[in-house]
Every structure is written in C-alpha cells, then in structure tokens.
Write a structure and sequence with these properties.
There is one protein chain. The chain is of the alpha/beta class and 485 residues long. Helices cover 46% and strands 11% of the residues. The protein is built from 20 helices and eleven strands. A five-stranded parallel β-sheet has the order 5-2-1-6-7, with helices on both faces. A three-stranded mixed β-sheet has the order 4-3-9, sandwiched between helices.
C-alpha cells in the first residue's frame, strides 16, 4: 500500500526526526508575493520565511505565483502548499517540512487574482526568482496592458509588477518593495530600470513618481539546489512517510545578503542568518565571480567531457588546479573583506558533495545570459590592470566549444539557451568575430580589444582541435611556467 500524500493533517505523523511547522498556518498573513516558485525559492527564501513564522511573526507568509507552467501549483496545492526540504552532505541527511507558502496562483488561469494579491494592503514585498532572461523587455515592442495577455508576452513578471504598481499609484497607495533574488549583477537597480522602462509606457507621470518612491534593494543569494531526480523524491518520501510531489534537495550551506531598504517593513530575517548591509556589491561580485563563475567552467567542461555531475568534474586533478588559478585571478577583481582562501576551500568542499548530484547540464543552461557578469566583467577588469586573463578567456572558449553541440565522445549536447539557434550557427562558423559582435554578451570594451579576441580565438581553436582536457593541461603548463600563450 503506497503512502498518502503530504498535507496539513499528516504533520503529526511524519517520520522520525522530520521537523514541521509548529505555528498556526491558518492565522498567517501573506506579506510577501513571490514570482517564480521554483526549486531554488522553495529551498532558500521560503525557508528563511518559515523561520520567521516559527519565531512568532505571522505577517510574512508567502503567496506564490507561477507564471508559465501549472506544474508547481498542481504539485503544491493538493499538499496544502507543504513540501519537504532535504539537506544532504555525504551520507548525512535531514528533512524539514516547510509551511511558509500559503497559496500558489497560476497566473495564466487567473491574472486578476494575481493582481488582487499584489495590490492587497497586506503585501509589503514582491520577490522574484525568474532567471536572468526574465528581466529583459525587447526593444521596440509595446506592451499589451490587458492582464489576460501578460503571460503570452516577453516578461510577464514585469507586466504584473508594473500594472500592480500603477493601480496602487492611482489610489495613492505606497509601492511594495521589489526584491530580486536572481543571480544578476546589481539585481536591484537592474530590476528597477526594467520596471521604470515599462512604467513610462504605461503612464509617464506614474513612472516619474515611481522613480522616487520605488525601493529595489540589491541582494545576493547562495545555496546549491539541483533539480531533484525521481530517486531523490523516493528517498525523501521514505524519510517523511508520505508522498511529496514538491520536495527539494539542497546542501546545508545557505547565504542571503540584502541591502536594508524596505519602506513598508520586512521580516526579522537577520535573526535567522540573513546579513543586512548598506552595499551588496562586494558580496555580489564575490558570489557571481567566485562561485557562479567556477560553476560555469565546471558545467561547460563537464558537458564537453561527458561528466554528468559537478562532483564528477571536481575530482579531476587538473580541474582543481585550474580553479586555483581562476580564483587567484578573480580575487584581484574583488573588494569584499572576508578570507577568500577559506571561501575557496568551502566552495571546493561544497562542489565535492556527491550526494547532491548537481547536473552540469542544468548549470550550463542559459550561459549566454550568465557570461557577462560571471566571466566577461572580470576579464575586462583584469585586462585594464595588466593582469593575466587566460583562465577567464579559457572559460569563454569552452563555452564556444560547447556550442558546437558535441561532446568529446561524440555524444550530442542539448543547448538550452534563449539564443541557442543563433549561437550554434555562429559556433559552426568557428569565426570568433561572429560571437564578439553579440553586444548583449560582449561590451564595446571587449569588442575593441584585439588582444583579448585573439586570446579567446586561440584557446577556442585549441579546444576544438585537441579537446577540452588536453587544452586545459596545456594552459596549466603555461601558467605554471609563466609562459605566454
């Protein structure tokens, strides 16, 4: 007989050692609307909110909104929006049922209910995990402001936000705080600029007022959350004693750094491990360039060398050596005042956590949207300072080789990227100039630097000729000897 599905009535009968909400979920208020209720949100922000509710402040429950797919809604709603977070570190695992999400709305089915929730007086914060491409509105495209069409357009999250803020403005209600939790450089200002751009189309006077009133604090988030496999879910079901269709797997480590700009108030997240600062920038650069930059290298190298998981790649001796060289150069672009050697050791340990089974294919998705802040920005800073750019140029070259679509064993690689078609056509030409002309990836400073272009071109040609592993070994030999390419 199979176990029943997780729901509120089963919380008293969870498996041994599984923790669950002790607060009265029926008395909470949704002070936060979150757009994009994916695995990362459920393993990160929702856990911090659960901590706040557990501590007794019941004003900060979450109303979740799915913008594209009903799957998360269909999984969570039958479970009373409860789900399990399973932390794994080697053979050790812990399970905790999270109760901070009170509802999940599927925007295409009922956009007006989403707008009503955004405009509720209880809503103080609207947070987002919509990935990098969700912040881009296509140039020259005028938005359709009928709510029923929002989810058919380029960035439904921006449309819902602007429409809700406009309705608040019309009744002279204060705007909610916007909190981006995506891996974007300057994610707060980036989000505000995108919102103001659309707001000016909605009503110029509204946009002018919003520019003065809207708070979009920058954040940096850090937790490794792989896509759970069917085996992961079966293991969690056995732990909790119920069927959980929305469980997530993660690591013990979690970090959230936020600029403290919340005019309508915020949860006391600082009591539960969140760091509030005046300027997130140094932490953001450290995370994007150290962790995410290394992740991009690992993912691309793994895809080319048929290594499925991050933990498979990190065991390669030459990968360990490359990361040391990559981080050594990256550190020269950072201003954060923490011990980077300790951070580097921690990252290697986290990457080695084989129990997570973090797939390189998942990390390699949308690399065209990630490369500018993770790799290109530090390349340019290093070049300006006269520093060695080869480790970072090697990552760019790896990406171009990955876009050829075939691993070194001849296995096809699925390129999952919003620019996939044009990128693969450019890769097949093997002409570096075809890549560099993409302005959204390569700024003018890069495009106008023949030395950098030549460096990437030579590394790309070498990887395409002899393979990623031999090319990496050759680069490491050059770096050790101090020789030029």
């Amino acid at each position: 007989m199979s176990a029943s599905h997780l729901d509120q009535s089963g919380l008293a009968n969870l498996g041994p050692g599984v923790s669950a909400p002790r607060y009265d979920r029926s008395t909470t208020k949704c002070g936060i609307v979150h757009l994009g209720v994916g695995n990362f949100h459920r393993a990160h922000q929702a856990v911090y909110c659960d901590d706040v509710l557990e501590a007794g402040d019941l004003n900060w429950a979450i109303s979740g909104v799915s913008l594209r797919s009903p799957n998360v809604r269909n999984d969570l709603v039958p479970q009373d929006c409860l789900y399990t977070v399973c932390e794994r570190d080697g053979a050790q695992k812990t399970a905790r049922v999270i109760g901070s999400i009170m509802e999940v709305l599927f925007a295409p089915e009922n956009p007006h209910r989403v707008l009503d929730r955004l405009n509720s007086p209880a809503t103080k914060i609207v947070s987002l995990t919509i990935t990098e491409k969700g912040y881009v509105w296509p140039e020259g495209v005028y938005p359709n402001w009928k709510a029923e069409t929002f989810c058919d357009q380029a960035s439904p999250a921006l449309l819902f936000i602007v429409e809700a803020l406009w309705r608040r403005w019309k009744i002279q209600a204060k705007p909610f705080t916007l909190l981006s939790c995506d891996n974007l450089s300057s994610n707060g200002p980036t989000l505000k600029q995108a919102v103001l751009h659309l707001a000016s189309d909605r009503d110029p006077k509204f946009s002018s007022t919003l520019e003065k009133q809207l708070s979009c604090p920058s954040t940096t988030v850090d937790r490794i959350v792989p896509r759970p496999s069917s085996d992961d879910r079966k293991s969690i079901n056995a732990l909790i004693g119920f069927q959980d269709a929305a469980s997530v797997v993660t690591e013990p480590f979690s970090q959230w750094v936020i600029e403290d700009e919340f005019p309508l108030g915020r949860p006391a997240w600082q009591n539960h491990g969140v760091t509030f600062v005046e300027d997130v920038g140094p932490y953001e650069d450290m995370k994007l360039r150290f962790l995410n930059g290394a992740h991009t290298f690992i993912a691309l190298f793994g895809q080319l060398c048929d290594l499925e998981h991050v933990s498979d790649v990190i065991t390669e001796n030459q990968v360990d050596q490359f990361l040391d060289a990559f981080w050594s150069q990256t550190s020269k672009t950072l201003t954060v005042t923490i011990n980077l050697a300790d951070y580097q050791r921690d990252l290697k340990s986290r990457f080695s956590n084989a129990s997570l089974k973090h797939r390189t294919a998942q990390i390699a998705m949308d690399t065209s949207q990630k490369l500018p802040q993770r790799i290109i920005a530090p390349i340019l800073e290093l070049d300006r300072a006269g520093q060695d750019t080869r480790p970072h140029s090697f990552v760019v070259a790896l990406w171009m080789a990955y876009l050829l679509g075939t691993s070194e064993s001849g296995k096809g690689i699925n390129i999952d990227d919003p620019l996939a078609d044009q990128l693969q056509r450019r890769a097949q030409s093997r002409e570096i100039g075809r890549f560099v002309e993409i302005e959204s990836i390569f700024p003018a400073e890069f495009r106008d630097n023949p030395q950098l272009i030549l460096e990437v071109a030579q590394l790309f040609a070498q990887i395409a000729s002899i393979g990623a592993g031999p090319a990496l070994s050759d680069l490491l030999d050059q770096l050790k000897s101090g020789k030029a390419a």
